[in-house]
Fold this protein.
Amino acid sequence: MTRRSFPLADVYRLLEPGPVVLVTTAGGGRANIMAMSWHTMMEFEPPLVGCVISGRNHSFGLLRTSRECVINIPTFDLARKVVQCGNTSGRRVDKFKRFGLTPVASSHVDVPRIDECYANLECRIADARMVDRYNLFVLEVVKAWIDPSVKKPRTIHHAGRGAFVVDGETIRLRSRMK
């Protein structure tokens, strides 16, 4: 098999960690939304999620200051709004209003959930020791919500350069240990 060199700046396209999510943060009397695809589960119980948020993003400062956020998991039907949120800065724009998304009060954090998303994870910073060096926040999920009417959520996954992959077929490959 012939191989060719691959650009290091594009390695992220090979290791996409999960669905694109919408992270809500709040500060100064206003909520913000950012699209994020660089996240990973780090622990089962308590559920810990590692998230990389660029220090250039408006949400970075809001999360660092408030120490809480909501990870909202959209489905395919919100794909255009997800891209619009990702391509717009929240410094001067209310993304909830601009993109027709509905803020809903959370129960454990002072940051709204997005009602249109099929799942919402209310989070608090559990560990900020790697923020200065790597922009890596370790978040603890303190409350999780899911819409039980969504039986097979079709989430979107960032493939780089404006391309996305939509979840589709589920296969089961469970083998029994003997």
